[in-house]
């Protein structure tokens, strides 16, 4: 039982509050690890915006919000929620134990608008991996966390399929981190639904070494619009057919077209009926809270919630289904792993199956010791204005230098599958490497290490970087945040933290920096 007695006492619950049975994956199905019964997700996507009362958009750290919403979740009869944005700081104990006591499992996205892989200028570095690791540290202790998502709709068109290589590398590294902690929480991916790349995406995340492969696959599917549509005419049949004999669980991480209102959710009979239950594990309806896009089941305002027109239709449709599964002991997996999609523009797929390397701070620190011309700033700027200025400086430095010297060590190419040995270092480290190359190329003449006051000369600590690539971080030594203190001092995600009150602006600034960095390397 992970819910602590302390938090149970605070909530005034009986101290023998029942713990929730952890779920496990066997083959392409989820099971209750205690009873062996197959588990179908009857879920709702849950992301009330709490930015009016908090600088951080983390509904699982908002006890009042959870208390407002729990009665609705119970009344709807859902057994799981998917939460898109949380933070590895703040206190989640109360929300998590309330959910657990209500028999509600949680699937968590690892990324946030600021800590993510940008589809148009993909990069994956030591900071992002560190952030994902802290999120695992924060949430893995709760028995009802049954899955993590390493990305949501990152690749969403034929021209940004390269980004999937970076997402899959992050997925691989989070899986390996979880394994190193002797945990078994699966890590999957949630895809958008674009017929041009649907098959390429689903095979890409399933192919290659088992340690690189997504442990489960989620689809955000909005094809079934209104009661006149059928399993065939909606397009569902087409999507489902291609998951026949899949080797890992598949589920709908979002569903619920709203072109015809109110929504009566006719697709629910199909999702939990025999056409789908052999290959799908249910899904999450989009979404709990009413937003301007009008997909909500509940309109929330302060401490009150009001049902929307869709609420009772969803509740009734969900109550009417009773998916029949198999028991874990009687089930023998027979699904087949897929091979990787071929890499070619004509196949609409440009992500090589050779993935970016695992980020290692030890490698980057080792490399920094060999540099003679480095950034004057020792940490990433934290305000949006400073970030934008920083981005401009870095971009022009890459532009000047990389036209002359080879910047391959700090860049990568998802199509060729070739990644520089320092391509995963943070932007400050990468620009410092670039400036030192220039300084050396200019034979260290006075003024060659200045870059309009951005750089400074330092004395070299080590002249040989040949062993840097062998330096690996020890996952056991990585410190988790003090999740019970409710402060954010342990998060190094300073940009996200400080700009948390304006997530879209922060997202813009960080991605502008990364976009500048990447585009100058193309
Ligand atoms: C893909 O196309 C869209 C729309 O034309 C464009 O905004 C985006 O920058 C392109 N992405 C890449 C990686 O080329
Ligand atoms: C790398 O170091 C930075 C700065 O200390 C930290 O924020 C990040 O989490 C570390 N990354 C990894 C993968 O340990
Ligand atoms: C289904 O799979 C085939 C390959 O077996 C592929 O060519 C086709 O595009 C896929 N269809 C969909 C709807 O993804
Ligand atoms: C299952 O598929 C069959 C054949 O396409 C269809 O006739 C039936 O309506 C589907 N069942 C549901 C519940 O959609
Ligand atoms: C990667 O390499 C390919 C093949 O050499 C090239 O066509 C493409 O422009 C490169 N892409 C990036 C993002 O650098």
TrEMBL record:
Annotated X8 domain ranges read 371-470
UniProtKB keywords: Disulfide bond, Glycoprotein, GPI-anchor, Lipoprotein, Membrane, Signal, Transferase
The region called Disordered is annotated at 464-496
Signal peptide bounds = 1-19
In Swiss-Prot or TrEMBL terms, this protein is called 1,3-beta-glucanosyltransferase
Gene Ontology, cellular component aspect: plasma membrane; side of membrane
Which InterPro entries did the record assign? GH (IPR017853), Glucanosyltransferase (IPR004886), X8 (IPR012946)
Which compartments does it reside in?
Cell envelope; Cell membrane; Membrane
**Biological process according to GO:** fungal-type cell wall (1->3)-beta-D-glucan biosynthetic process; fungal-type cell wall organization
Tell me which EC number(s) this protein carries: 2.4.1.-
Keyword Transferase carried by entry: yes
What is the similarity comment for this entry? Answer: Belongs to the glycosyl hydrolase 72 family.
Q: Name the enzyme group at the top EC level.
A: transferase
Q: What does this protein do?
A: Splits internally a 1,3-beta-glucan molecule and transfers the newly generated reducing end (the donor) to the non-reducing end of another 1,3-beta-glucan molecule (the acceptor) forming a 1,3-beta linkage, resulting in the elongation of 1,3-beta-glucan chains in the cell wall.
Presence of the UniProt keyword Glycoprotein in the record: yes
- Tell me the domain of life: Eukaryota
A Pfam family annotated for this UniProt entry: X8
Gene Ontology MF terms in the entry: 1,3-beta-glucanosyltransferase activity
Q: Which SUPFAM superfamilies match?
A: (Trans)glycosidases (SSF51445)
Q: List compositional bias (Basic and acidic residues) regions by residue number.
A: 470-487
Give the record's membrane topology: Lipid-anchor; GPI-anchor
